[in-house]
Amino acid sequence: MPLLDLLRPVSDEELRALSERNPGWQFERLADGRLVVSPTGGESGRISAAVLGQLYRWNEARGLGVVFDASTGFKLPDGSVLAPDAAFLLAERWQALSPEAREGFPPLAPDAVFEVRSRSQGLEELREKAAWYLANGVRLVVLLDPYLHRVEVFRPGGVEGHQGPERVPLGPELPGFVLETRGLFLP
C-alpha cells in the first residue's frame, strides 16, 4: 500500500480534487495526514462490484439504510478519510446529516464496511485497516481475500475467519444478510 508523506496535510477539498483528477486511483487520508494511494485492479474491482450488488439487493428488500460504493470517502472521528469497497449506513444516521455533510465526505463511521484485497495489498495491511475502522466506530468489517479464498469478519468483540466458505451470515449488524461467496473467488 503506497503511502505519500506530503509537506502539509491535504484538506478534504484537495483530497476530493485529487480523486476527481485521477480516475482509477483511490486516495485515502490517514489520521496522521499521510495519503494512501491504490489503484483498483480488475479482479478486486469485479469482486467489489459483486459484493456491492449483494449488499444493495439486501438493502432494497429491507429498506434499512443506505449503501455506498468505493468512490465514497468517510471522514472518521480520528480525522482520517477512508473509502471502503462497499459500505452500509443505517437510514436514521444518514438522515441526521445535513445536506452539506451528505455532499462532502460524510463525517461519521459507516455501520458496516467491506474491503477486498487487491494484488498490491498485503493481508496484514487490510487487517490494520479493519482495526482503524473498528477504533472509529464501525460495527462490522468484512475482508475478502480472493488469493487465499478467505473471508474475515471483524466486530468489536473479535474476529471470525472463514476459509473457502460458500456463505457467510453477517447478522446481527446486517439482519438477514448472507454474503454468497460462490463465484467471487475464482480457481
UniProtKB/TrEMBL annotation:
Gene3D superfamilies: tt1808, chain A
Gene Ontology molecular function: any one: endonuclease activity
Keyword entries, A-Z: Endonuclease, Hydrolase, Nuclease
A Pfam family per the record: Uma2
Residues in coiled coil: none
Keyword Transmembrane belongs to the record: no
Protein name: Uma2 family endonuclease
Upper lineage: Bacteria, Thermotogati, Deinococcota, Deinococci, Thermales
